Each structure stands twice: as C-alpha cells, then as structure tokens.
Amino acid sequence: MPPPFPPRQEVWLAHAKCLTQLSIELPPFRIVAKRASVVLDVLGKFSSMRSTQDLLKPIECSFEGVEHVAQGVGVTREVFTSLFDALKAEADSAAPGRVFDRAVDGDGGDPVYLPSTRASPQQCEAVGRVLLRLLLMGLPCPLKLAPSLVKSLACSEEELTIDDLAHWDAQLAAQLRGLAAASPLELAAMELSFTELEDPRRVDEPVAASNLRDFVKHKLEHALERSRTDQVTRLVYGFRAIPTLDCVLDLLGARGLDALLISSAVRVLDPLLVARSLEWRDWPVDSMVPALLTQCIMRLDQSRLRRFIRLTTSQNVWPTEGFTPPITIQRCPASEQLPVGSTCFHILRVPDYADPRSVESKLLMALDHVGEQDMGYV
Questions:
Q1: Tens of pLDDT, residues 246-286
Q2: What angle do helix axes 73-92 and 302-313 make, rounded to 10 degrees?
Q3: Residue 328 φ then ψ, to 5°
Q4: Least confident span in 200-209, 316-325, 355-364
Q5: Are 248 and 11 in contact (CB under 8 A)?
C-alpha cells in the first residue's frame, strides 16, 4: 500500500475532489484539436475561457477528423499528452515560436523547462490554466518544470538557491558557488562590480564580502526570473485563475506542489517496474503470449516504453504510486490484429497469437504508430 500523502497535500486533494464533484453537472468545455496544430488549438481554447466556471467545467476533448474514437477521459488525457509532447519538441529544437525554453546545461537527469522569452503573455497564461487543470485532474505535468518556476506557481516566499539554478545552468551555478565561497582577498582580486543586470541602482559598486550575498541573489534572479518576467508573471496569473483556490495552493506550498505536479511521476521508466505492475485477464495457463509479451516489454527502450504506457493510459510518465486501475492485458480471440489500447480503463487488448513471432512484431508495430491519427486506441 502506498504511503499516505502529507496533510497539506491531503487538504488539496480533498478540495480538488470536492470542486470536481460540484462542477460535474456543468455543461462540458469542449476542445477539438488537430495533432498538427495541437499547441495552437488547445492553448487557444484555454485562452478563450471567460470565467472561473469555464476552468471548472468537465473537459471533453477530441481530435478533429477522428470520429471513430469515443470521447472520454482517455482521449482527454491523450490531448494533454500530445500538447506537452509538442511543447517539448518545440523547446528541444529551439523553434522560433516556442512557449518553453529547455535548460541550458542542467546538472544531469531529465532536462527542466522555463517559459521562453519568445512566448507571448497570452500563451503563458493559457499554459498556467492548463497546469491548474492538470492539478485538479490529479495528473502529473508531462514536462518537468524548473524548481524556480514551481516556487513561482506556489507564490512561495522561499528564496531562489544555487541548487535551483543548477537544474537550469550547471556551469553558472558552479561559478556562483565558487564566488559565494571566495575570501575577501579573492573577491578583491576578481575586481567584480554590479551592473544593470544585477541592480540598476548599484551600477559600478564593487563586490565585497559585505554585499556578496546580494550580488549572488541578483545573479540568480536574473538567470531564472528577471530575463523572462512577463512570461513567468502571466503563467502564474493563469495558474491562479480561481481565487477561491489561492489559500489551498498557498497551504500546499512549493514542496507540496512539486510533489503533486512534478515529482508524482517517474520520468525514467523501469521496464521491470512496468512488467511487474501488469495484470492479466482471461489468459489460459497454456498460452505463450503473457510470457513472450513480458519479455518484449523488458527489452523496450525508453521511447517505446513511453509509447506502451501511452497506448494503454494516454500518459507518457509513470505515477509514483502506479496507475489506478492498473494496466491490464486483456485476452482477445486468436487473430493477426494489432494490440489495441482502451485508455479510459487502462486496458490493452491483445489477441492470443498462434505464432510466437507475432507477439513482439505486432506490439512493436502498434507502439511505433502510437499518436498517429489515434492508431491503436479505442
């Protein structure tokens, strides 16, 4: 059994559940998106919201031109996953119109993201609303946000730290660590002084032991916030779009918000964890498929492992507490059809293949087309 949430997170979860239940009778907020323009379509719809009630309405998402896929929570999750996949792709390729920037030189692990200096305030506000919606739905953010941005979303009074910067720019963080530890004689030899980037009111003031902390603080703020003030401000404004939630978000704090929105997902997937978490339904003891399929999953690389999760749940990150309900492999009569995911219920329907070679080949074929015109979903 997973450990219970800390009390502050329990308060948020109870509050979010209550709001969701109270809003269930509202007319749905419908989003129809094209995969080729999912960022424009989804952020455009969130920008068009005119009241907090719109943000609380049940969301029904669908992809244009794919009427055969029934609307449901699985399709809604798939639209959000496609949105963040596109936002990530734009950031990773440094596309001119990107909404996010990728870490310059992070300290290892998954890269983190901050709002791009190129993003429009309207886009950032819409992204803030999307993040709030994810939090209300109990879904982790597919994009790993920089710790400094999480502090901003939480309106935390915690100061930015060199550790926060290390996630974004490890080289600059190392330089500032060295500077913070410098002796007065070493500082004098460096002949550093404040510039407009650090503090316009202290231009040309020499950096000494007495003002070193301020100098480092201003360097941190410029690298993580001031260079993108408008974008961060509007993103926070969108995230705080429901005033009645402010007190609960304040109670949650930066650590609680990170725990629910960022750290609630395992981003480097473990094939063994995935394989051991599967449930099998209606498989006879003499079928070779469960063992062969398990072996295939164990050999999947990170990209295909994410696609497997997406095929079955419409998400591409693994919740730290596992999926509820768990991913279930449902037996279907023998055929040569591809496996099909039922993402609303976390079910993968797999034929009881007669040819052992079909197990891996059919699964890989399905995985390699996940996200293309909803192939593999029902």
A1: 999 999 999 999 999 999 888 889 999 999 999 999 999 99
A2: 150
A3: -120, 130
A4: 316-325
A5: yes
